[in-house]
Design goal:
157 residues, alpha+beta, 4-stranded antiparallel β-sheet, two-stranded antiparallel ribbon, 2 helices, elongated
Amino acid sequence: MTKIKKAFSPTLAAAGALLWASAGAYAGAPVALTDHQLDHVTAGSAIVFSNADAQATGLNVSATTLSNSILGTNQGVENGFGSEGGVGSSVAVAWGLNPLGNSGGAPPPSSSTSATSGGAAQGNFTLSIGGSGTSSALGQTIQISTTAVYGAFVPGL
């Protein structure tokens, strides 16, 4: 816990200093932006999410989940061009087994999963690709979900 506090404290202090410094920024009066300036402000943006759940019942059980999301940006490749993309993926695996069958009144084994991902992109060029699948056999259920999004502002498009 001490390591977490030591790593978290400088980050929290830096965030507080940034908020305090930005409070002193004052432009004087509203200024109209040109179309060229607005192109840089309203460049592409993206958001992604992922979630995974798994459950299993039986005498021998296993349930595992993995969920990841990442965003990346690419600003300034070309004057007036900005883009942002993201990927969200999730995997859920559940396995339930009664090795001796259902003797002795043991309930039947079961397994179920839930894996979701999604996202959205903004810009005058957007791309979204996603897919998911579920497979079940012999008391094991595997489910995956993946989403990729890309949003860009491309001058002249």
